[in-house]
Design brief:
The chain is of the alpha/beta class. It contains seven helices and 14 strands. Helix 2 crosses helix 3. The model has no long low-confidence stretch (mean pLDDT 94). The chain binds ribulose-5-phosphate (5RP). Ribulose-5-phosphate binds next to helix 3 and helix 5. Keywords: Isomerase.
Length: 260
């Protein structure tokens, strides 16, 4: 049976509230992201192999890990970055890096998300790194997702923002049309993502991203996922179903930790 975040909220523990000050402190979205990220880094222990996420929320976590390494509070960390951008950030912070070939089992990954439903299914990839994120986070014993409360939705696609699908550049219009037709009854419009300079956005893997905009729920998520992956030309999609083991949500009322 479908549930909504508002129903779930009554059963969630608020772990930390901002201090009660007068006048009330309004935290920015970025401050909330940082609070969630710092909380997640409390799960990190010396000696761990860590999946390092991508995006403005994950960036705070990577910064924090770098700080703790520099201060000697964490030791012997190996990071597995989920994008070239995170790789550059981690190198600049002196975090030792490796890859899935050498470290096929990861202790813990920390990453953001674009949407989180009440079952802790996610949409990821508005930053364009969904393939590497799915590979790394799929290899994790624990995947802690960190979001501010604006990312909570009652069903995936519910924010009205993009549901990303990574496709090969070859005949991308053909693939985009197939995707749009597949979700026609959900009012789907498929658009090629651009890089903001008039060209197609190209992922770290040399692929394009087709963003699906949905007016209605796409129904059964496993059926939708399987359907998308059966289209030749699709590399991966941004639905992360049953992957997050914990979602940390930072909001004006404090932090909630939601475990699978
Ligand atoms: O999936 C992602 C990148 O591919 C990001 O984690 C997601 O887009 C959230 O980004 P942000 O933390 O900047 O809101």
């Amino acid at each position: 049976m479908a549930i909504a975040w508002s129903e779930k909220a009554s059963s969630m523990e608020v772990l930390a509230s901002p201090p009660s000050l007068s006048p009330p402190v309004i935290l920015t979205q970025d401050e909330l992201k940082k609070i969630a990220a710092y909380k997640a880094v409390e799960f990190v222990e010396s000696g761990m192999v860590l999946g390092l996420g991508t995006g403005s929320t994950a960036k705070h976590a990577v910064d924090r890990i770098g700080d703790l390494l520099r201060l000697g509070k964490l030791k012997n960390i190996v990071g597995i970055p989920t994008s070239k951008k995170t790789q550059e950030q981690a190198v600049s912070l002196g975090i030792p890096l490796s890859d899935l070939d050498s470290h096929p089992s990861i202790d813990l990954a920390i990453d953001g998300a674009d949407e989180v439903d009440p079952y802790l299914n996610l949409v990821k990839g508005r930053g364009g790194s969904l393939l590497r994120e799915k590979m790394v986070e799929g290899a994790c014993k624990k995947f802690v997702c960190i979001v501010d409360e604006s990312k909570l939705v009652n069903h995936l696609g519910g924010s009205g923002l993009a549901m990303p699908v990574e496709v090969v550049p070859f005949c991308w219009k053909f693939t985009a049309r197939k995707l749009q037709n597949m979700f026609e009854s959900s009012g789907c419009v498929a658009k090629l993502r651009n890089d903001g300079k008039g060209e197609a956005f190209v992922s770290d893997n040399g692929n394009y991203i087709v963003d699906l905009y949905l007016k209605k729920s796409i129904g059964d998520l496993v059926v939708a996922s399987d359907g998308i992956l059966r289209i030749a030309g699709v590399v991966e999609h941004g639905m992360f179903l049953d992957m997050a083991t914990t979602v940390i949500v930072a909001g004006e009322l404090g932090i909630t930790i939601n475990n699978k």
